[in-house]
Amino acid sequence: MRKITFLLLVAALTIPAASFAKTPPPKKPSSARQQLIAKNSAKFCKALMASNLSLFKRTFGTNVNHSNAYGKCVSAHARAKHTTRTITLHNITLNGAGTVASAGVGTQTASGKITGFLGGTFSSTFTFDLTQATPNGPSSFCYPATGTVTATLPGLGTLTKQETGKVCEVGPTGANVPHTFNGTFTVAGGTGVFTNATGAGTAAFSQQPGPTTDKGGTFSCTESFATLTIHL
Length: 232
Fold this sequence. Notes:
Blueprint: H1 2-11, H2 17-22, H3 32-51, H4 53-60, H5 69-82, E1 86-104, E2 107-116, E3 120-128, E4 134-135, E5 141-153, E6 157-169, E7 179-190, E8 198-207, E9 218-231
Antiparallel strand pairs: 1-2, 1-9, 2-3, 3-5, 4-5, 5-6, 6-7, 7-8, 8-9
Helix pairs in contact: 3-4, 3-5, 4-5
């Protein structure tokens, strides 16, 4: 999945080797906008290179040992920025694992690490509507839930999602019980590469109890993007 996603991401930037051979070296940026594009392109390509160096070289490199891959990537990304190109990725999955940072009446926050597409960290805040409880077996309930999850992907930026669904107790109601969540999300914003990004998908998490309350319990989640559109 990671290799396929990487290939999809660079596909929007890739230009045939023959085109690179005929294109003269780019001139030094002369305007503030061109300087910003060059800076952002460098950051973007460094992040791609760090995620999978050998694949990065094979994709962008045009000489014998692919040592010019970085320069070709920067050039291709800069061209994409000038043409306001977008790319839509499909079926991307981010997996997260961490701990519950705080828990109150109808609220919960958590943070941890992301694996899958590029990797990074996440933080989440969820609110449960305890006034709309529905039965979930003997002495157990489910509640409507809304939340905000922010993924930080080093070198690329942050991606914020708004989530809506249902959280359910696993076992009888209490101050320290496991919970599960299932719902959907939409991309609400981002920074870096993900500025003005859009997308949607499904989300799920599982939370285990901590020593005396939810706080300190393990937290694992899966965020599955049906689509993620990036404006290059």
